[in-house]
Amino acid sequence: MANIKEINDSEAKVCFLIDSVTTNLWSFTQWKAALNNKNARALGIYVGDKLVGVCVFQLNFDEAELHFMAILSDFTRRGFGSMLFTKFLYVLENNNIRKVLLEVSSRNLSAIKFYEKFNFTTVGIRKNYYKDGTDAILKTKVIC
Questions:
Q1: What is d(CA 31, CA 17) in angstroms, rounded to the nearest whole number?
Q2: Residues 6 or more apart from 60 whose CB is under 8 A from it?
Q3: Which residues is 4 bridged to in the sheet?
Q4: Residue 23: pLDDT above 90?
Q5: What is the pLDDT of residues 94-118, one digit of tens each?
Q6: pLDDT, mean of residues 122-144
Q7: Is residue 144 predicted with pLDDT exceeding 80?
Q8: Residue 125: which region, alpha, beta or left (left: phi > 0; alpha: psi -120 to 50)?
Q9: Is the torsion defined by CA of 43, 75, 117, 3 positive or negative?
Q10: Torsion sign, CA atoms 11, 103, 33, 21
C-alpha cells in the first residue's frame, strides 16, 4: 500500500539518494535548501516506510513550477508515479493554481510520454540546459 505525504528536510538524505540514482540533478546541499525553502513544497510517496518517489514544486501566485519528480527504478511502471503526480495536481487545484510549468530532458522519453499522458503540451526548448548538454523541453498545463 502506498502513502503520499508532504515531506521536509528530515528526508533530504533519502531524496538526494533517490536523485543520485535517477536524474542526478541536485547536490545534498541543494536538497537541504529546496526542502527548507518556505516557497517550495515536496510530496513523497512511501511503500511501507520506504520513500520511493519525490515531487518538489513551487507555488507562485496562480502558477506552479515542478522542480523535481522521480520514482526509484524498482518502483516504476507500477502506478506510483501516476499516484504521486495525481496528488501533486490535486494540491495545485486546491491552491487555485491556474497553470503549471515543468522542464524535462529531451532524452527522457518515458518522462515526456508520462507528462503528455497528463495533457501537458510543449511550449519551448532550452538548448544545452542540463549538465550533460541535453536540451530541456518546456511543458505546461492549464489547471483551471
A1: 10
A2: 39
A3: 45
A4: no
A5: 999 999 999 999 999 999 999 999 9
A6: 94
A7: no
A8: beta
A9: negative
A10: positive
Chain centroid offset of residue 123 CA: 18
Q: Show the cell assigned to 22.
A: 535517477
Report the distance separating Cα 54 and Cα 88, nearest Å.
Answer: 10
pLDDT in tens, 56-90: 999 999 999 999 999 999 999 999 999 999 999 99
Distances (CA, A) of 34 to 26, 41, 68, 77: 10, 8, 10, 27
Q: Which of 47, 53, 51 is nearest to 2 (CA)?
A: 47
CATH topology of domain 2-142: Aminopeptidase (3.40.630)
Pair 28, 16: CB distance under 8 Å: yes
Residue with cell 502506498: 2
Query: Which element (helix H / strand E) includes 83?
Result: helix 80-94
Quote the Cα angle for 97-99-101, to 5°: 120
Question: What is the domain partition of the chain in residue ranges?
Answer: 2-142
pLDDT for 1 equals 82
Q: Which residue has the cell 500500500?
A: 1
Q: What is the pTM of this model?
A: 0.93
